[in-house]
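Hi L.,

You mentioned the student needs an example of a multi-chain input paired with its predicted structure. This one should do, with 419 residues in total across all chains.
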Amino acid sequence: MNEDNRQRTLAEIRRAIAENDGLRLDAAVSAEERKALEEAAFTLRNLERELLEDTSDALLERLESASGQLKDMSKAVRTKVTEMNEPSKVVEHFKNMASLVVRVLTEVARW
Amino acid sequence: MRTSTLFRSAGFFLLALVAATGCSPLSKAQMEAVQELTFRSDTVSRSPAVLFREMSEVRLSRGLFYAASLSSGQMRFEEVTAVAEASMDDESVVRKSEGYVDVLNSYVRALRSVSSQQRWKGIGTELRGVGARVDSVLYRYNRLDTGYDDIPVGYAKMAGKVFAYIAEEVMKVSQAAAVRNIVIEADTVVSATCDSLMNILRCEEMDDLIRHEEESVRDNYSAYLRAMEIAGATVPVESDIRYVELLRQAEELSKIRNSCASALRSLKNAHSKLAMDFSSGEKKVADELVEEIIRFNRLASQVAGYIN
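Structure written out for the whole complex:
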């Protein structure tokens, strides 16, 4: 469904639903007529839902396309962040080893 | 090596280091500008997903009002079921859109992480810790009755502090170079992504969806009230309260959309200005950049206010 059709149709659907509601919510309408008009209302609402879904899907496709370019760049930056964390991790490892040696020496001193 | 020679060497090395750090590719103010820019960027870049979520909520509530205007039990059941199914489909749309816009968020978060002070403070803290631990090891060793002379204590802690300072300065320079390169390399793509998101926000389809929700809220509630009148039923005031909330929510869709589009433009401009300054070797933060970042933060706060 192309853009122009989608735009005209959403507005048209709103008008169609409103017109149908004008008829079905008339106090003078008989029970049978009201039942038929309510079925028509349900059909129109289904059409509205279908159009809304189509429009949303079209926007989603554009979002997907927009995000594609930046994906690789984000990955590269995250890799850089991981690399920058490495020196700290190495130093923390030595710090933990030194702590372990302190604990061992403390225990040895207790004997 | 004698202690005095050791200290002299360390002193010369420090002087050389201080001179080298003066040649950092970015100034402290520039690093802070990057942090400021990335602080609220995620609020703005999520905006298309937020709009989908807000529209979904309005659609569900007005759909229930409309269903209540149907007098036939069977029709009402079918309409409510269809509204529920559509709402679940809308949730799927929201999740997908959040996934797509998360890419810009991901870049912004990573840039924020790379430019954070923790990058260089962390290693300094660890090295000071190592120095202190080594001194503790020597102290414990000296307490043992090994028969050897005591090893002097205190130098390891001092060395830890010196190495910590050196490591921090080296990391600052390395971090500044990384941030500079990232911002320059990413600028074209960030600009293109912001342009695409702005176009999506301002496109006819988005316009149409927003207008449809604004008008349908009124139509659907009006149908509900007329149906209640025919049935002779009293409409509880809670329904009116809910309708007013929905009207406000629908009105805000346009405001969210417009604020987000403006904020994305600000983000794009500020990022481009940063990239330009970094490329030209400029160390000062220009007034235009400061204004752009302030404008961006104001718009992002506005968007956050609408969302929350």
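You could point out the following to them. Chain A touches chain B through 59 residues (CB under 8 Å). The radius of gyration of chain A is 34 Å.

Best wishes,
N.
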